[in-house]
Amino acid sequence: MAKQNPFKYFNTSPEIIRLAVMLYVRFPLSLRNVEDLLHERGINVSHESVRFWWNRFGPLFAADIRRKRASRMRAHSNWQWHLDEMFVKINGETHYLWRAVDHEGEVLESFVTKSRDRKAALRFLRKSMKRFGQPHTIVTDKLRSYSAAMNTIGNAQKQQTGRWLNNRAENSHLPFRRRERAMLRFRQMRSLQKFAAVHSSVHNHFNHERHLYSSHNFKINRTAALNEWRQLCSG
Fold this sequence. Notes:
By secondary structure, this protein is of the alpha/beta class. It folds into two domains: 1-76 and 194-235, no CATH class; 77-187, Nucleotidyltransferase, domain 5, CATH 3.30.420.10. It has helices spanning 14-26, 31-40, 47-76, 118-132, 144-153, 167-182, 189-206, 215-229; strands at residues 80-90, 93-102, 107-113, 137-140, 159-161. A five-stranded mixed beta sheet has the order 3-2-1-4-5, with helices on both faces. A hairpin with a 4-residue loop joins strand 2 (93-102) and strand 3.
């Protein structure tokens, strides 16, 4: 059975939709900033169109990225995981965004909860392990919820804690924090979960760790990532 074209009933070209979604998710821009940038390129769309496109196609693009990277990530991401939770305000109420990052800086999983107790940590760990398998080592901070959850699962011997060991997870929060400020925080828990999942996939796709490559190789990798982005959901 042929895969249905997700752009079938849209008058706007898929290239413009992909560009708008990439600008909004990847960079710390508001909807109106994206509208202005597109207008400068001669593309006249409203910020509400950008909002609709991101809500409609953002999860599709993220799923396509994860599907294409799944085999490589599963094979190479299980050496060491870094787990951390960050505070996110939703209508003045504190929620917790749990994040799992591998040793190369790939964001493996993002999960939003209202609490950070053993039950929430257990749900987060089981969700991550169901998708990526069992890691060899899990680095966390000293939050007791992690130890309690790992005792329940039976992999407490894999946990490592230390003052500087979890810098990989702490640094991975920075791109999301920049986006959060540009969006003036979130209004619903569901929208936070949706955006965090899409943002992590897009960040993984364009994150080439520039400091590890020469300028020539970095440009090659960046061009390859852009070309692959332009082919998302093209069938």
